[in-house]
Amino acid sequence: MSSDENPFNKFLKRRRSRIFKNREALLHTYTPERLPHRDDQINELASILSVALDGSPPKNIMVYGITGSGKTVTVRYVLKKLEEMAAEIGAHVQSIYINCEVVDTSYRVLQTIANNFIKQWEERIPPTGLPTDEVYSKLQNILDEYGGVVVVALDEIDRLVKKSGDNILYMLTRINEYLNRAKLSIIGIANDLKFVDLLDVRVRSSLMHETIVFPPYNAKQLEDILKDRANIAFYEDVLEPAVIPFCAAASAKEHGDARRALDLLRTAGEIAERNNEPKVREGHVKLAIKRLEMDTVVEAIRTLPTHGKAVMYAMYRKSLRELKLGKRANDIEFTTGELYQEYSDVCDFLGIPPVTQRRFTDFVSYLDEIGLLNARIISRGRYGRTKIIKLASDLGYIEEALRNDPEFSAFFAKRQSQLYLTNYFED
DNA sequence: TGTCCACTGGAAGGGAGGGCTT
DNA sequence: AAGCCCTCCCTTCCAGTGGACA
User: What is the pTM (predicted TM-score) of this model?
Assistant: First the structure.
């Protein structure tokens, strides 16, 4: 390459995709103009929310269904349409969407709602510092100043309740009693309804005035969704005919998760694009399945705190030893005590003090929750009660994640990979 | 049948860090 | 600057637990 040739040239040529017309249509954040197989839910939501257009507060709504059943996208779609209609007829309606996985304390929820109405940066409510009660009364003033109907959608509301209790829901469900001009309604979105057991009876009855269920999609329905989005996302004739049915079938097997189906299709397209191929084939989807599996594990580990990573590394190291002794990957499991010992050794190695066993069990529970580990409690009689902990993801993926971590890469620096990225758990 | 093991997991609280009001 | 509040991460304490074993 001559020195005057710009090294970005070849990327520039490739930059204009021959595969994607509009990649965004396959992202979770995209709200499409059509939502196949969700007419019933859209109509139900719209009929409950329609009173907002007359200035009355809609009843609170609980929306539930498993991951990828279209809850979020449907609620966002209906809220968008509600605001459009309100603007058209001059009604005072504002909707606010809050993801409680990010905004997960009472204070932050109140702050987020309030800041939605504050345009001046200096006047916005700070992320911490004020008493929660004060933010609550500020919010009342702000809402009354606005004077219309406010619909707040709390996505992953179950997480909020598990983490911070139901105090915030109590505050929000009662706020209308203190408002003179404005009215506030809540839409709670949850994966399952187990969390309502944690709610105060009054909160429960108020929050669940209306419930709307989102059943999982079947393969045929997923296909319709993918076709719709593919029309927006891909150039014509880029997808081979088998691609969409294959994506739909693979995701239908995993509880009909539309989000995953869209991820698969997008990733398959990206793989084809990166390989400079003119068409997306079934083979790309198969690669995409592997890729997504690995990305999920790598991303989950990457975002863990140091001690969480240390637990994963302890699990990795101990499993690897067992593997070398000839044990089958599926049979490798440890008790809390065994893994805690290994974890303490890892901390010694890193030169950081280990957390207590109590805190350690919190990490194990969390890693179980996010699917990196499998943990179940067993009783071994006079040998006590403990948790049996197994890996829930491929050792190779875990190694890949830790090898690229600045704190843990030293463990791998001298050695070549002990593993190839083969799936040990494939049988 | 009672004992006892090796934990589990809830509750309370400490302290560092960030930010507010007065 | 002082006093207060919130969040996050962690420790300490401790009652509770299921089932093998004597």
Answer: 0.84
